[in-house]
Amino acid sequence: MKMKEKEKNQEEVVTKVKEVIDKLRPYLQNDGGDVQFKRFENGVVYVKLIGACSNCPMATMTLQDGIENALINEVPEVIKVVGEE
Questions:
Q1: What is the percentage of the chain residues whose pLDDT exceeds 70?
Q2: What is the model's pTM?
Q3: What is 1-52 written as a DSSP string?
C-alpha cells in the first residue's frame, strides 16, 4: 500500500513539474530553444535544453535562474534542477 501511495505522489509531482515547464517553454522557444523533461528522482528534476538553448552561453543561467527557480517556487518537492545531454 505504501509503495502505491509513493508512486501516486511521484506521478503528481511529475505532472506539476511538466505543467511549470510548459509555462516556461514559450520563453525558450522565442529564443529558438526548448526544454525537455527527462525524469524526477529524489527531489531532483533532470531536463535537457535543446535547440538554441543547448549551446547558448546563457544556458546555465537559464537552467538555474529560470527553470530551477520556477520549479522550486511552484513545486515544493523539487530541490534542484540538473541539465543533461
A1: 96
A2: 0.87
A3: -HHHHHHHHHHHHHHHHHHHHHHHHHHHHHTTEEEEEEEEETTEEEEEEEEG
Residue-wise pLDDT tens digits, 27-46: 899 989 999 999 999 999 99
Q: In which region does residue 78 sit, left (phi positive, over 0), alpha (psi from -120 to 50) or beta (all else)?
A: beta
Residue 67: pLDDT band with limits 50, 70, 90: very high
Looking at residue 82, the DSSP 8-state letter turns out to be E
Judge whether 57 and 49 are in contact, CB under 8 Å: no
Q: Which three cell numbers stand for residue 39?
A: 525524469
Exposure letters 28-60 (e unless 16+ CB within 10 A, then b): beeeebbbeeeebeeeebebebeeebeebeeee
| CA 67 to each of CA 18, 30, 78: distance values in angstroms, whole numbers, following the listed order | 11, 15, 11
